[in-house]
Amino acid sequence: MAITELQAGALNARQFIQDQVRQIAQTVGDGIAITALSGGVDSSVCTLLAHQALGDRLKTYFVENGLMRQDEPQRVAELFARFGVNVEIVPAQKEFFRALKGLTDPEQKREAITQTFYAKVFRRLVKQSGARFLVQGTILTDVEETVAGIKRQHNVLEQLGIDPRRAYGYAVLEPVIQLRKDGVRKVAKALGLPKSLYARMPFPGPALAARVVGEATPERIELVRKATAILETEMRNVKAFQYMAILHEDRFPGMREGKRDYGLQIEIRCWDSVDARVATPVWLAPHLLKKLARRMTEEVPGVVSVTCNIAPKPPSTMEAV
Ligand code: XMP
Predict the structure, then answer these.
(1) Going by CA atoms, what residue is nearest to atom 11 of ligand 1?
(2) pLDDT higher than threshold 90 for residue 148
(3) Where would I find the beta strands (DSSP E) of 238-302?
(4) Same domain, 152 and 261
(5) How far is the centre of ligand 1, averaged over its atoms, from the C-alpha of 161 (Å)?
(6) Of 157, 231, 245, 283, which has the maximum CB count within 10 A?
């Protein structure tokens, strides 16, 4: 079934909230739903909509998959406690790294993450909580790119012909599926979420695994996590839709203490975009690039090369994986 787009400009956020809260309440009835909060704007909006609709009958989880940014689980739990939402942190690092072991192909990595979320972690959480519904923040751009075969977005199921009830034993509710990122931000603001959240950069479902070229081992994820923390600190005042640090797979000749060092490469991408469908690189100031190069090579172990990608989307995609 085709999804009707609700464009941000024409969107009445308050009406949208009322409609979605009513819809969720009707669908779930007197049952229980779960939601997996990632700390991004899409899942945050869905959590608050479902919380308004269901109160304590919504169980909110943060899946600690080992692929998230520094301090993310605690930060998310603290923020949502202010909205009366109790966030339970679910440790699942081992399951995700086991699923990613040995995988280097981008689509296989994405598929492994999808299956670990839906077939393992969510299935278990649904069983434990007695829920029959999963509320999640799929947006229209996710669906379009997956259906077009550009990239398998981790949260797209039904549009690929997967019936989650039959495949996983629970139904999926997607309250923001008619919106794009700019529309979701508008709703987030109307819900009273702080600017640090509603204006927050998008972060992909496969998390830092989308930013490691080649195998996403715990060690390599830790390197890109360090690079990401440096990048997000140094670039916090840059006006951009999204920026990211990517760890490459190739080894690059370098030198350290007068000796050859086959080291690592970090690539920086900084994007200007409205809705992530097309994007252009932001030209970063030389003093910022210089500082990033210094900090990445000094603070991320093994890095000898730092590059900045200047290709637009298309033909690039925004994430590396
Ligand atoms: P790409 O790399 O497809 O990214 O050009 C476009 C936008 O989507 C985000 N992204 C994802 N978001 N699940 C998500 O929820 C995913 O699997 C996923 N992959 C990419 C990406 O960060 C960018 O904003």
Answers:
(1) 204
(2) no
(3) 242-247, 252-256, 259-272, 280-281
(4) no
(5) 20
(6) 245
Of 171, 198, 225, the last residue of a domain is: 198
pLDDT tens for each residue of 171-190: 999 999 999 999 999 999 99
pLDDT in tens, 213-238: 999 999 999 999 999 999 999 999 99
Say yes or no: 53 and 169 in one domain.
yes
Residues 119 and 245 in one domain: no
Q: Which two tokens stand for residue 120?
A: 């393992």
Q: Which domain holds residue 297?
A: 212-308
pLDDT tens-place string over residues 55-66: 999 999 999 999
* Edge-first strand listing for the sheet containing 133-135: 87-91, 58-64, 33-36, 133-135, 171-173
For a mutational test of ligand 1's pocket, the pick from 67, 110, 151, 278, i.e. the residue with the most ligand atoms closer than 8 A to its C-beta, is 151
* End residue of a domain, out of 198, 228, 256: 198
Spatial CA neighbour of 37 closest among 130, 123, 113, 136: 136
Distance, in Å, from the CA atom of 102 to the CA atom of 90, rounded to the nearest integer, reads 24
Pick the atom of ligand 1 nearest to 273's CA.
Answer: 24
Same domain, 169 and 216: no
CB-based pocket (< 6 A), ligand 1: 142, 145, 151, 153-155, 202, 204-206, 210, 242, 276, 313, 317-319
- The confidence score (pLDDT) of residue 277 equals 86
What is the domain-level CATH number for residue 287?
3.30.300.10
Whether the predicted pLDDT of 240 surpasses 90: yes
